[in-house]
Design goal:
- By secondary structure, the protein is mainly α.
- The protein is 74% helix and 3% strand.
- The chain has helices at residues 2-31, 37-42, 48-57, 64-77, 105-140, 145-159, 162-176, 192-226, 229-236, 241-253, 255-268, 273-279, 284-293, 297-325, 327-330; strands at residues 79-83, 86-90.
- Strands 1-2 form a two-stranded antiparallel ribbon.
- The longest helix is centred in the middle third of the chain and has 36 residues, at 105-140.
- It is globular, with a radius of gyration of 24 Å.
């Protein structure tokens, strides 16, 4: 257990360093780039006195290192903002106020994050079921017509962009067959049944793309495991094929799939832009598109930081899961 704990600690410290570097790059990119953040925050009808007040409030006249330090303080300890009606307290992590709506960015994230999380988690369950099942069947039917058909299907799924798959699903199930409504996000707490029905098509669009990758990985990993000596030994002892595959071969083939799942789940928070825009889901992807169009820098910075941190955390989870599955990894 000490080896695994040390391995986790090393990965956690490395992830913290990566997040700090990410925050520095993101802050420098958006706040040192050409353009005046104070003028963007103040608006087009801002007079010189209002502009001066905004620059003072945002500490834009301070040296860069002090601005960055205030940014980190806001992330860790929160920040207070002076408004016309008093003081607005922003709890940590604090990304400031939106230039467009004057709302706290954390409130905007709190509204949109459940949508993206619902999309990512539901799609993950579906792509694991499709991908592992297809890859397992392909490996067990190696050399036959079933394997060739599944191989072509996985190649087609990998090559088809998500917006093509999504449009096809919308046209088929919403327009021609009229089996499903056009997706409209319903919070899980309001109506779980409608929440699921309205997310079926977005889940399917993402899962069909991702499951092809998992089918290929499961197939290759399963074939490699079936060729190992201990699997042949179990067969020589007279174990049934179901017992060999289910209890031993599949267990040995799943660790790389589990590790990739954790990484892809983190990446999905940053890759949901097309899917959310296509299906009209009010998630982080749609928020990022709107913030980019209106040059709402605090919102863009917040979404980039949240999605980047999700990827870093997902990589830690992937490393730890792989180390649990293969204890030799933790000792390296």
């Amino acid at each position: 257990m000490n080896g695994l704990a040390g391995y986790f600690l090393r990965r956690a410290l490395g992830a913290l360093a990566v997040v700090l570097v990410l925050s520095l790059v993101v802050y420098a990119t958006f706040y040192i780039a050409p353009g005046d953040p104070a003028r963007l925050a103040c608006g087009p009808r801002c007079n010189p006195e209002q502009l001066r007040q905004v620059r003072e409030q945002l500490s834009l006249d301070d040296p860069f290192y002090l601005q960055y330090w205030h940014f980190l303080q806001g992330l860790v300890a929160g920040h207070d903002y002076s408004t016309g009606t008093g003081v607005l307290h922003c709890t940590a992590p604090c990304f400031g106020q939106s230039y467009q709506s004057n709302q706290l960015v954390t409130d905007l994230l709190a509204e949109r994050l459940p949508v993206t999380a619902s999309l990512a988690l539901g799609a993950m369950v579906l792509w694991l079921l499709l991908g592992i099942g297809t890859g397992l069947l392909s490996a067990l039917r190696r050399g036959g017509a079933t394997e060739r058909v599944l191989t072509w299907l996985t190649l087609a799924g990998t090559a088809t962009p998500v917006f093509i798959t999504g449009l096809g699903l919308l046209m088929l199930f919403c327009v021609y067959l009229e089996w499903l409504p056009f997706p409209t996000y319903v919070p899980l707490g309001d109506d779980p049944e409608q929440w699921a029905w309205n997310l079926v098509l977005p889940w399917a669009a993402l899962a069909l793309l991702e499951s092809a990758k998992y089918a290929r990985l499961t197939r290759s990993s399963m074939l490699e495991t079936l060729a190992e000596d201990h699997v042949r030994t179990f067969r020589a002892y007279g174990l049934t094929e179901r017992a060999v595959v289910g209890r031993h071969a599949l267990r040995g083939a799943l660790p790389p799939v589990i590790a990739l799942t954790a990484v892809d789940l983190g990446s999905m928070f940053g890759n949901a832009v097309l899917t959310e825009s296509l299906f009209g889901l009010p998630g982080l992807g749609q928020l990022l598109v709107h913030a980019t169009q209106t040059i709402d820098i605090p919102v863009v910075v917040a979404v980039v930081m949240v999605t980047g941190t999700a990827v870093v955390l997902a990589n830690i989870v992937a490393d730890v899961l792989y180390a649990v599955a293969d204890r030799r990894v933790a000792l390296r």
